[in-house]
Amino acid sequence: MASKDGNTVFLTEQEAERIRNTVKDRLKKCDELAGHARESRDTKTAISTATGASLMADMANMGPSKGATMPAIGLGQPYPPCVAPLQDLQPMELSDLRMETHHRGYRLTVKRASPVVNLAARSWTMVQDEAGEEIERLELCLHKKRHGKELLESADSVFIIKEPYFTLTDDGEPTIRIDHPSDLVVVPESEAGSTNGTNGEATHATAAEQKARSCKDQGNAALEKQNLALAHAKYSEGLKLARQDIVYKANPDLARDLSRNRAHVNLLLNQLDEAKADAKASLIGKEDDQRSRELDSKAFFRAGMAAYNLGQYHEAKELFEQRLKLTPDIYPKETQAILRRIEAHLREQEAGTHDLKKIRAGLSRARPRVDAASFFSNTAVKESPGRGRGLFATRDIGAGEIVMLEKAFCVVWGFEDDALTAITYDVRDDRIRVSPVGLSRAIVQKLLSNPSQIEKVMDMYGDWQGDSNTKNVFSTADGPVVDTFRVHDIVSRNAFGPGSQYGEKGAQDASTGLWIRAGYTNHSCLANVQKEYVGDLMILRATRAIAAGEEIFHSYDESSDYEARQRALMHTWGFECDCALCVVEKAEDPAVRKKRRELAEEADAFVQSQPWANANRRVIVRAQRLARAIDETYDGEKYKGLPRLATKRIQEWLAHAAPRR
Ligand SMILES: C[S@@+](CC[C@H](N)C(=O)[O-])C[C@H]1O[C@@H](n2cnc3c(N)ncnc32)[C@H](O)[C@@H]1O
């Protein structure tokens, strides 16, 4: 575990080595044991170990050092999630598990047998199979919660593990390990009778209708108590019954009521795709009936809000217009106000007409995200030879003009509960990094809640592109499928920090986010746009005139030192920059670069220690001398038309200080 303090993450060489060795030792042992039969555990010992560990973890989570250490996570052995529906998988028993094996084609049904051990980046518990004869450890890595609740804590539930992966923990202990949340199906015990985890079809219409009604009542009661997850589960259970032909033909309104109610819960849970679909499915369409109009008005509102929150403003406009037309007497002012907001967002989307001053004024720590549309029409994504895909200007853009505005797909602010930073060691490149795993986690949650968004996130660049046969499968009959290793790798290469806008500070507190469109922008040290942030709205502004067809570049790393810059680009983004500036710098005598680096360090120290306000003549002369000395390290001929990055800070200091003398 690394300790953290203020802006720095401390990780000594020994600690780094220990993390490396732990991961490598584990992999070695896994290799040796691959295919071996599982050894039976003693139930009593297993439960008492888990109980002790659970207590210790709870105490650590409550203690004074809470949050003072960063979890360490080993990476680099990605495997795809299961893409088969439960009903196509064969049942297996705990005793069938083989070490270091993905049991493809199988499913395992278990029940929790001990308390849950809740750690920062993982949770584990002991589970027993249906016969209760065997006991084994089950671990959920990182993606261990759903709607803020620990999945393993689900009371009275059975867990069905799709294509279980049996491996070793870092401590060398056997465990079933789940990395992809879609590989775990949590089924209420009452429903678990049918082995595929779904309700058996009720054959008798009246009995099914009665059961569906009871589910609706239970859903309503759960909603009243703000138990959204239970309300959703109950409405879903009821819907399954109410949508059966025999029930639907006799009473179509029951399915509509359940859909309308679930739409409401889905909106509260930010499950916008299903909220929209449910609300639309609930429409009755009897315009001559007052009650039907009222209910459909509600449905149009719910579908409209879901579309609005998904940024689908054209659809949202249609839905709210239909609402107004259908029930001009129900909250007309509110509907008109939403329609005005939608019109404003459509203008933002088409012409980039954002009122940034107003947007900025509406932001606070309590409301850190903007309500604004993205504006992309000045840009297009195309191939960029040697760099994968890139972003290109579709028209001439003047210096200082806005090139693009994008609302983040997801931002985790450093002060939010979702924030989590971990030390990650990746065996693929033997590198240790500080990774915003809280952002990966939040993205996965958002994708599970809004499966229509999965494909566009998965299209982003990342090292692990998924299994070639299954990489484009994003759902099964059991729900959405998200490859969390892919999300992690996408975050590694595409996440940016919107800076400290709400008082976040320090490495452990850094805010990070994912902007999908901006993610296609390649790097150049000779960038033509600069990034700015207003809340979670990223603004790319032209730093010089950009001609139609030109590629848009921003700078991923602004270090003036060539070596430091290349190191950061290779370490974080995996490439070597070959822009015109890097070509010249690379060809220079390393001794010249070293001298420039030392002078730049001296200049940085000077700038930090000497305030420019009221600087006296002697101090200014010193700054001028330093600037000249750095300047002299540049060959005038070779650097013609190229920036002299190392002089930047001292020149800025001089620009502030000199005019006042
Ligand atoms: C944020 S993505 C940029 C979009 C990416 N090119 C794509 O195809 O989706 C970052 C990745 O693009 C590539 N890249 C960006 N700038 C580059 C450059 N100047 N030269 C080579 N590769 C670059 C690297 O692979 C980097 O990890």
TrEMBL record:
TPR repeats lie at residues 297-330. Residues 377-557 form the SET domain. PROSITE patterns: SET (PS50280), TPR (PS50005), TPR_REGION (PS50293). Keywords: TPR repeat. InterPro entries: Gramillin-biosynth_MTr, SET_dom, SET_dom_sf, TPR-like_helical_dom_sf, TPR_rpt. This is SET domain-containing protein. It comes from Achaetomium macrosporum.
